[in-house]
């Protein structure tokens, strides 16, 4: 059983075809990298996989279940989570409050308006454990808008992890980070459970090639190459279009 299968996926925006017959298959626990120049269709692909956009044609399968027409919240319940290029946190809430909301949303019971969140010891215990695990306990009481951008990116990743996903989509997790922040965030990614399937869009090739087991290259909405790191490094079309030919 494959974790994720995409079959001849296409997406049109009026007369513009952003994706054209994209197909790929990702194994459970695989670290798959999606690369390509700006406008290649990478984020459009992630938006369709996560349910933020609908496909014009094609099919998406998650662990042998057809999720092509499933809304985003159903995909989340099935074990699919994602992060975004721009941090997706509540800036006025504290780090702890952001995490508590994510954990509560992941509960079977969901939100309960007549129950005070501070009365749920289990939620606080889970939140504290996650913050301690990822070394963010020291900033738990700070508003998200007051912490550094790198810490916001770390928090964004923890919020995705709060749902205990089986498949995690990372959309440029190191975008806008300093060298030191990149090291911290990628350390978190490497520390994720081995059984978790990860698809990642990344522009930093040093970071990308260090993490990826297999790479899919998009160009103008089409898959132009796929293979392991060495195959992609040596692929002449990828070198010319994306990495830059001498």
Condensed summary:
The protein is of the alpha/beta class and 246 residues long.
Features:
246 residues; 9 helices; 10 strands
Which residues form runs of ≥5 with pLDDT under 50? none
Largest sheet: 6 strands, mixed
Q: Which percent range describes the beta-strand content?
A: 15-25%
The average pLDDT is 89
Give the class from helix and strand content and strand pairing: alpha/beta
Number of helices: 9
Helical amount among residues, as a percent range?
25-40%
Total strand count, please? 10
What does this protein structure show overall?
By secondary structure, the chain is α/β, with parallel strands linked by helices. It has helices spanning 42-50, 72-77, 95-106, 121-133, 149-161, 179-190, 205-211, 229-233, 236-244, and strands spanning 4-13, 16-26, 31-35, 57-62, 65-66, 80-82, 167-171, 197-201, 214-219, 222-227. A hairpin with a 2-residue loop joins β9 (214-219) and β10. The longest helix has 13 residues, at 121-133. The mean pLDDT is 89.
């Amino acid at each position: 059983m494959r974790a994720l299968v995409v079959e001849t996926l296409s997406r049109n925006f009026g007369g513009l075809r952003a994706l054209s017959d994209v197909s790929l298959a990702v194994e459970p626990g695989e670290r798959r990298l999606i690369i390509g120049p700006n406008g290649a269709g990478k984020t459009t692909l992630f938006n369709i996989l996560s349910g933020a956009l609908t496909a014009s044609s094609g099919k998406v399968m998650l662990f042998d279940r057809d999720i092509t027409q499933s809304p985003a919240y159903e995909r989340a319940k099935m074990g699919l989570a994602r992060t975004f290029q721009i941090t997706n946190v509540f800036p006025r809430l504290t780090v702890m409050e952001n995490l508590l909301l994510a954990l509560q949303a992941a509960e079977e019971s969901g939100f309960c308006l007549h129950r005070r969140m501070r009365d749920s010891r289990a939620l606080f215990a889970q939140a504290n454990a996650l913050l301690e695990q990822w070394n963010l306990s020291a900033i738990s009481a700070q508003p998200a808008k007051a912490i550094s951008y790198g810490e916001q990116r770390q928090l964004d990743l923890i919020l995705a992890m709060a749902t205990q996903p089986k498949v995690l989509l990372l959309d440029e997790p190191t975008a806008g980070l300093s060298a030191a922040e990149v090291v911290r965030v990628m350390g978190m990614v490497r520390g994720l459970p081995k059984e978790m399937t990860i698809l990642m869009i990344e522009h930093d090739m040093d970071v990308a090639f260090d993490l990826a087991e297999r790479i899919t290259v998009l160009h103008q909405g089409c898959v132009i190459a796929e293979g392991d790191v060495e195959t992609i490094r040596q692929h002449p079309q990828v070198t010319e279009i994306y990495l830059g030919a001498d």
